[in-house]
Structure to design on (166 residues):
């Protein structure tokens, strides 16, 4: 149950939502925030990661945390590729967590009306994803109802940070 609360609180810190029963000074409030936290912020919080480039991994006591950093400086093109975000380089653009423990998806008690169902990994047909495109959350579930992973990405509510296409 503690681990389920951690997952919910990680999501809470990403989206700035504070559960009513939580103290505003709770430790998790200083967690990683999508499109806000920088590499320096994350390393101050979690230490040195596995990996040195724009995709890094942290082995935590409850699972594995994957982070993607922005590889451009604001909207400046680089290496022949167009930039997507008006953000500084090394800003967190994706957060994924894969727990080491079994947690049923049903125990999260989510309002699934906000989510679309999708099979995003054709190579693993037993995985089903529930995706909230507005807020940028994806829960991936095994065929037995066990939570496989949670991913936070820039949903459409973050479109104001997108670069203007020419």
């Amino acid at each position: 149950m503690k681990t389920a609360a951690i997952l919910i609180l990680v999501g809470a810190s990403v989206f700035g939502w504070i559960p009513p029963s939580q103290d505003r000074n709770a430790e998790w409030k200083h967690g990683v925030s999508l499109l806000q936290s920088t590499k320096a912020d994350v390393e101050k919080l979690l230490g040195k990661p596995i990996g040195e480039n724009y995709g890094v991994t942290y082995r935590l006591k409850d699972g594995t945390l994957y982070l993607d950093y922005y590889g451009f400086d604001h909207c400046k093109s680089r290496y022949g590729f167009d930039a997507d975000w008006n953000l500084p380089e090394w800003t967190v653009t994706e957060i994924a967590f894969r727990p080491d423990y079994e947690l049923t998806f049903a125990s999260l008690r989510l309002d699934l009306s906000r989510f679309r169902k999708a099979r995003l990994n054709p190579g693993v047909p037993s995985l089903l994803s529930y995706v909230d495109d507005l807020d940028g959350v994806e829960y991936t579930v095994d065929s037995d109802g066990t939570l496989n992973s949670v991913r936070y990405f820039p949903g459409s509510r973050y479109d104001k940070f997108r670069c203007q296409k020419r």
Summary: The chain has one domain: 2-161. The chain has two helices and seven strands. Residues 1-30 have pLDDT under 50 and may be disordered.
